[in-house]
UniProtKB/TrEMBL annotation:
<protein>
    <submittedName>
        <fullName>ABC transporter permease</fullName>
    </submittedName>
</protein>
<feature type="transmembrane region" description="Helical">
    <location>
        <begin position="65"/>
        <end position="82"/>
    </location>
</feature>
<feature type="transmembrane region" description="Helical">
    <location>
        <begin position="94"/>
        <end position="118"/>
    </location>
</feature>
<dbReference type="InterPro" id="IPR005226">
    <property type="entry name" value="UPF0014_fam"/>
</dbReference>
<keyword id="KW-1133">Transmembrane helix</keyword>
<feature type="transmembrane region" description="Helical">
    <location>
        <begin position="217"/>
        <end position="238"/>
    </location>
</feature>
<dbReference type="GO" id="GO:0005886">
    <property type="term" value="C:plasma membrane"/>
</dbReference>
<feature type="transmembrane region" description="Helical">
    <location>
        <begin position="6"/>
        <end position="25"/>
    </location>
</feature>
<keyword id="KW-0472">Membrane</keyword>
<dbReference type="Pfam" id="PF03649">
    <property type="entry name" value="UPF0014"/>
</dbReference>
<feature type="transmembrane region" description="Helical">
    <location>
        <begin position="124"/>
        <end position="144"/>
    </location>
</feature>
<feature type="transmembrane region" description="Helical">
    <location>
        <begin position="193"/>
        <end position="211"/>
    </location>
</feature>
<keyword id="KW-0812">Transmembrane</keyword>
<comment type="similarity">
    <text>Belongs to the UPF0014 family.</text>
</comment>
<feature type="transmembrane region" description="Helical">
    <location>
        <begin position="37"/>
        <end position="59"/>
    </location>
</feature>
Amino acid sequence: MNLDTGLGWAAIAVLPLLIVIGVAGSRYAGLRHDKGIVTAALRAVLQLAAVGLVVGFALQHTLGAIAFVLLMFGVASFTSTRRLHETAVVPRQWLYCGTAIGLGALTVLLLLILPGVVPRNPATILPMGGIIVGGTMTATTLAGRRVLSEYGTQFGQYEAGLSIGLLPRDAFKLVVGPVAGDALLPALDQTRTVGLVSLPGAFVGMVLGGASPAAAAALQLVVLIGLIAAETIAILTITELLSRARLPDGRTVSS
């Protein structure tokens, strides 16, 4: 039995057990994500199978890699929009999420790829794009949900800010700013503990591919700091856009 076959059968045997553990833990703790865990696992299987059919082409052609990153961006925007919609319905929510994800990811990817900080080839553009877009999606979702939730529960503080002469946008950001910043904690913790708690994929992949540990560490550092920069831009953007939006109770936060 070769290695690929062995890993395949092992995954088939273990994956259902891992799903059962996740569902059981969710049910026992009252997390209300029982169905979501199963759905996410099934979607991951189908999506990875589909991606396997086209990723070979994307890795051979620069335009194919760019097109695939754009597809990732579209799916990420849709996913964040749906998650924010679960918290509150805001007009043009899809535009806000897309702008936050796109601005954060595009800024960092251009800074990394155009000057040649990372190789300008499909094999780099595709995984780098996926990492950065995925990070900005998570940050946008977490920040947006926390901002909308905090605004709904702390409206009195918002009105207090207005009463002392703050502009509506400033009062809004004064109330929601601290909780929006929580969306950056996963990226910060990942960077603080890299090499001690986890060995990220880019580092391990380069070392296994024959690169020196120093070169692998340099690339991984670029990825981690790039994620922090991209997610910071995304959090800033979604908070700024929501500060100008008509929020769920009909109140408009604008200057």
